[in-house]
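note to self: dont lose this again. the chain is below, predicted strucutre after it. 409 aa total, dont forget to put it in the shared folder this time
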Amino acid sequence: MKKLISLLLSFIFLVLLIPNTIKGAQVKLTKPEFEDVIPVIAKVDNSINLESPSAVLIEGSTGTILFEKNKDEKLKPASITKIMTLLLIYEALEAGQINMMDDVTVSEHAASMGGSQVYLEPNEVQNVETMIKCISIASANDASVAMAEHIGGSEEEFVARMNERAKELGMNNTNFVNCCGLDADNHYSSAYDVAIMSRELITRFPEISNYATIWMDTFVHTTRKGRTEFGLTNTNKLIRSYKGITGLKTGSTSVAKYCLSATARRNDMDLIAVILAAPDTKTRFAEAAKLLNYGFANYSIFVDDNKDLSLEPVAVVKGVKESVNGKIARDFSYLCSKGESSENIRKEIVLYDEVKAPLTTEDKIGDIIYYYDNKKIGSVDILASEDIRQAGYLDCFIKSLKKYFVIYH
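---
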């Protein structure tokens, strides 16, 4: 009993010495310092001859540019505008704002679009999945506007969101005026910007390929006049001829000429080839295939998901728990040029000696550092696996009591 009373008195004395509040941002102790990552620079072969005035080829997981020709030139994108429309649709699905089976009512405005369409009628109702199918396969302007109104309330509001999202993605040479790609003043994009939004769509939502690679399909018009079946034929001819094709979108107008964002996947590597303003449809497909062939022939991707990695817990200072486990923030990807071998890649795991509470699942507790031979090529954060709050006086008292009973009992 005397020892317990002594422990209580000691605790009270310590409390009196500690300020009433403990302030300060998250502070990590004993952090390792690393040099900046050496950027991946692809060995671009600019000797590839293309008739199209603007083109780019990028790798999906790293975003590395493998080929470019006037990649930042502002041009009319025609219906490959719909890549951003589809991206916002899928982000709305992911956020739970809409559901695939939700009914979408076609407005007078949407039905009046003209151009590439599936002849939706005013007040016709189709579900979201059917609208995605019509946009992806048949490049339907009417379905695009109907979905824009369904998500944004109006096409104008949806287009504002398209432009906001473009800025977030770093699409610095893009401005949208509509959601379907009909020629309009001040509606433009660039080959590189199209590649950026294509990469975001195909890597975050690979399920888009389930629709973008359908060659022919049908859907049923349901109106007051009755039910009629309507045929859909894909405008991307590469889906019938190119091995590993995953999409994505064609576009053409008299002003924009012939445009294409072609995506393909082989050996776990995604490539995105964008062609703008090709003189004819045959050229856009042939030159996109040429770029994809170049990429697959000269590059491969190394991916490490660290799923089997076992990490030691890291000590927590002034927390309600004394240690925290780690979680890997993301997969690591490295683009290997022809002649490079993934066998030369190694990694080192560096955990902080200790971290200070409070902790959240966004806080780093270490790094996985990757090297190609002795050159650092990248890193992945190790994050705290759980939130740990800062210990208060009562927590410290309970912890002291537990230690007392462990020691004396």
